[in-house]
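Exercise 3.2. Students should predict the tertiary structure of the chain below and write it as structure tokens, then compare their answer with the key that follows.

Predict this chain's 3D structure.
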Amino acid sequence: MLAGSNIRVVIKSLIISYGITGMLLLFTAFLLYKLEPEQSLVSVGILVIYVLSSFFGGLLAGKGIQNRKFLWGLLTGTLYFLLLLLASWTLGGGIHSKVSEIVTTMLLCLGGGMLGGMLS
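Answer key:
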């Protein structure tokens, strides 16, 4: 495949990943409204959503590109995290998380994307 088509596959994978994120976050917001769980449970739920979304993005990128799948999954997970960080920074007026939380989220997103690519 040509490099341009690889980029299109990654962009399409990211769009689908963010669609999954949006749907799962809406579902989580509904559960929060109905169940009022503890903050720690909410934080874990959000991390799981990020991992699942980056996993499916990596899976789609690997299926679409068919060579070096784990690297394309890793790239997809990286871009997913960077766009997530950028959105948090611009919409939230800065980043208000601890560095350890940011690094943990980054590693989970990168790992989820790479695992998705590997399993594609």
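Discussion points: The CA atoms of residues 39 and 113 lie 26 Å apart. The first helix runs from residue 3 to 35.
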